[in-house]
């Protein structure tokens, strides 16, 4: 019958893909999400399966303790994002750092046998060498990155002091179906794609030379899932990335081709505050411990995302009503 598994943030972008994979494996999944960034619609395809949604805040100690009963693995993904931390750093820290400690302690006290803390490549800041291994120095450039790093430290501390079996994973940038384009959760690939589909300019901040390592969400979620199933992963900190980098200029061109608009316009704006200039993962540890090898290329993933938007039958122009260019400012965050 599979395990009983708790996924915090399971109605979000990566979380809903992880939940889908766990359900497909025959597990019973409890999703804990306050629906600030997550959406009920992200779980609609799982109706009638062994998946239930608990609308709770991860900072609610009593609620989290009650959800731990009978759980074999906690996958902790719930967080507020990078751009949110620029306009509301205290709330961002409270959810990402304090909230993570609340969930960790609830799981430890309940005796949950495994805890997977999902961090972020943002803990590194800009690459000082490439590719970036898990030993790369951590110099986060935002409160988001700092809060994620704090959560990592809490997970490792509970493992070292109490012997609690935790795993830390650091996904690099993910993309794919159910990705966020809206508000302060909006990310570059869905924002670029919807703008290109609607005939609008794709907005590049700075000179466009900054790079990212994009991994399809199905691969990211698979790596996270495997981290919770591997005995060898306990106590480890593990990167999850494609292992290749692309500049924002090249990404805009790739997206224009993927949507069939090779002449889609691009414009340039001032650099974003807190923007990391270079990220590229060394995921050899994930390969060695988890057998993690990404299966979806950026080119194929972009085509899949385009087809997904078309299948949703919602015009790109309408979706862009919730997309804001300067989504790190208070007035454009919602």
Automatic annotation (TrEMBL):
Residue intervals of the NAD(P)-binding domain: 6-304
Signal peptide range: none
Source organism, top-level taxon: Bacteria
Protein name: UDP-glucose 4-epimerase
Organism field: Devosia crocina
């Amino acid at each position: 019958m599979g395990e009983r598994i708790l996924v915090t943030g399971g109605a979000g972008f990566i979380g809903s893909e992880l939940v889908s994979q766990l359900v497909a494996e025959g597990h019973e999944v409890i999703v804990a999400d306050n629906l600030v960034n997550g959406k009920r619609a992200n779980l609609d395809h799982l109706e009638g399966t062994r998946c239930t949604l608990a609308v709770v805040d991860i900072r609610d100690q009593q609620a989290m303790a009650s959800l731990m009963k009978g759980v074999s693995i906690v996958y902790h993904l719930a967080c507020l994002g990078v751009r949110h931390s620029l306009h509301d750093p205290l709330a961002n820290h409270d959810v990402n750092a304090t909230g993570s400690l609340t969930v960790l302690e609830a799981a430890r006290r309940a005796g949950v046998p495994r805890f997977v803390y999902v961090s972020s490549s943002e803990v590194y800041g800009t690459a000082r060498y490439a590719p970036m291994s898990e030993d790369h120095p951590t110099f986060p450039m935002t409160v988001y990155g700092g809060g994620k790093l704090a959560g990592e430290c809490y997970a490792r501390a509970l493992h070292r002091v109490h012997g609690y079996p935790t795993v830390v994973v650091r996904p690099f940038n993910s993309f794919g179906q159910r990705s966020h384009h809206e508000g302060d959760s909006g990310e570059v690939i869905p924002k670029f794609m919807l703008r290109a589909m609607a005939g609008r300019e794709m907005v590049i901040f700075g000179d466009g030379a900054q790079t990212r390592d994009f991994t399809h969400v199905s691969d990211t979620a698979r790596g996270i899932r495997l981290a919770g199933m591997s005995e060898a992963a306990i106590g480890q900190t593990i990167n999850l990335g494609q292992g290749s980098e692309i500049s924002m200029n090249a990404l805009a061109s790739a997206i224009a081709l993927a949507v069939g608009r090779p002449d889609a316009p691009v414009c340039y704006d001032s650099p974003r505050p807190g923007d990391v200039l270079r990220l590229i993962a060394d995921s050899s540890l994930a390969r060695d411990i988890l057998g993690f090898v990404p299966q979806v290329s950026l080119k194929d993933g972009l085509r899949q995302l385009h087809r997904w938007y078309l299948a949703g039958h919602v015009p790109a122009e309408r979706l862009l009503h919730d997309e804001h260019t300067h989504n790190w400012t208070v007035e454009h965050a919602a």
